[in-house]
Design a protein that fits this description.
The chain is an all-alpha fold. It has 26 helices and no strands. The C terminus is likely disordered.
Length: 454
């Protein structure tokens, strides 16, 4: 036992020592039980890592050996972070994320954020931004969208060509869109779009991915024209200058918008081209998400092949489970499978599936929750229960109206009007159509002509 170790052990802050031990353990891939071995229980290791206990000198030396680090690194208060070492640990976190080990990625990036100072600049500042970004992606995959937004907002812009910040803005726009904050989904991306334009980087992969992400937000907000213009521009740039990933992103989003417009002859080939391009890479999450979208499109034609669509969706579900996909991605796939059941005339299982979706993502993804309510309503209508269908549709409308998605709310009112019309309730049908008109701003125009029409 070296006296110098005992002296430094008394001088080091237990909380700082605990952070260093935990960081080294996570980086080494050890559990608390493995680190403690026969010398210390997992509970005692936990108290050390939380700063509640100061270990003895022999235990510190044992820990250092098992962790593959020097005692000096654990005890020296002047120890500086090595940017190369931090970068390597971030690479491990990113690899874990892309391999579907989301919890591990979140733990590793959180550990690094505990070690990197908030005011870090230069190389360490860039690494801290990357840690925030990776942590946010892991949190997004775990369904913790509000926490993901907090981390993405902390990624700083380091200059006119800071593509890391652009990637963070893309993820931020996506998270805002999923939580229903469509205004912020658009607004948070505009500075990044301007930055890329000023830097002459409007054609790069990050720019194309950002544009199509913003286009999706415009579409959800009801601005279909702007969404189509942005997607068309992205496709043109991707075909001219983009990589396979950028082209896949452009084709994918363009296909979704064409699908919503009913142009399946254009939408399906675009989705298939995107799928082929993604299949050449290692982006398992997006490959699975796009396959889900393709399965949904295959349900929309007049002569839809339900077996083919179901096979596509089931395969996508398997890919989602083995990727970094989050609960929102899984929920969308589940809802697409609900549509297969409804088209087959099997509404029974739909209620349990939509209830599961609402339980898993109802509080974090209002647009998905609204769709789940609509599908539950369709299932009730198919079972001859129009009252239950009306209740489900009204809940969907309330969700959509609360986030300002008025056009989507109007579509649901029209569907409800058609439902009541089908069961012969003319008065309820009229009320639903009037509500649809009000959602699109038509009520005031009607009132100016003839108040009796309202």
């Amino acid at each position: 036992m070296q006296p110098s170790v005992a002296i430094r052990l008394k001088a080091v802050d237990p909380a700082e020592l605990g952070r260093r031990v935990r960081s080294a353990r996570v980086a080494r891939g050890l559990t608390q039980t493995q680190l403690g071995g026969p010398e210390a229980s997992a509970a005692y290791v936990s108290r050390i890592e939380s700063g509640q206990r100061r270990p003895g000198t022999e235990l510190v030396e044992t820990f250092a050996t098992r962790l593959g680090v020097s005692v000096e690194r654990l005890l020296d208060q002047t120890t500086q972070l090595d940017p190369d070492e931090v970068g390597l640990e971030l690479n491990y976190a990113e690899l874990a994320l892309e391999s579907g080990e989301v919890v591990e990625a979140e733990a590793r990036s959180t550990e690094l954020l505990c070690r990197l100072p908030d005011d870090a600049i230069g190389p360490l500042g860039a690494l801290r931004d990357r840690a925030h970004y990776l942590n946010a992606r892991a949190l997004e995959a775990l369904g913790r969208l509000d926490d993901a937004v907090d981390h993405l907002e902390k990624v700083r812009c380091a200059g006119i060509a800071d593509l890391q910040w652009v990637r963070a803005r893309t993820a931020l726009s996506r998270c805002y869109r999923e939580t229903g904050d469509l205004g912020r989904a658009v607004d948070c991306a505009r500075p990044a779009l301007d930055l890329l334009g000023e830097a002459g980087l409007a054609h790069c992969d990050e720019a194309i991915q950002l544009v199509v992400t913003v286009a999706a937000a415009y579409y959800e907000r009801g601005d279909y024209g702007e969404a189509r213009r942005l997607c068309r521009r992205a496709v043109e740039r991707a075909e001219r200058d983009g990589s396979p990933t950028a082209r896949a992103s452009a084709y994918w989003n363009a296909s979704m918008i064409e699908s919503k417009r009913g142009s399946l002859g254009t939408a399906v080939p675009l989705a298939q081209r995107a799928l082929a391009l993604l299949g050449e890479g290692n982006d398992g999450r997006n490959l699975a998400r796009l396959r889900s979208e393709l399965g949904t499109m295959q349900l929309l034609g007049d002569s839809a092949d339900l077996d083919e669509a179901e096979q596509t969706l089931v395969r996508a579900a398997e890919e989602l489970r083995s990727s970094s996909a989050g609960p929102v991605d899984v929920a969308r796939n589940q809802l697409a499978q609900c549509k297969v059941l409804l088209l087959r005339g099997e509404p029974g299982p739909v209620h349990a599936m939509t209830a599961g979706v609402l339980r898993d993502v109802g509080g974090i993804a209002p647009i998905v929750a609204a769709e789940a309510e609509v599908l539950a309503g369709r299932a009730s209508a198919a079972q001859g229960d129009p009252a239950a269908a009306q209740s489900a549709y009204r809940r969907a409308v309330q969700i959509l109206s609360a986030i300002g998605s008025d056009r989507a709310a109007a579509e649901r009112w029209f569907e409800l009007g058609a439902l009541w019309e089908a069961v012969g309730d003319a008065e309820a049908s009229r009320d639903a159509y009037r509500s649809a008109a009000a959602s699109t701003g038509l009520q005031l125009r009607f009132a100016a002509v003839s108040p009796a029409l309202v």
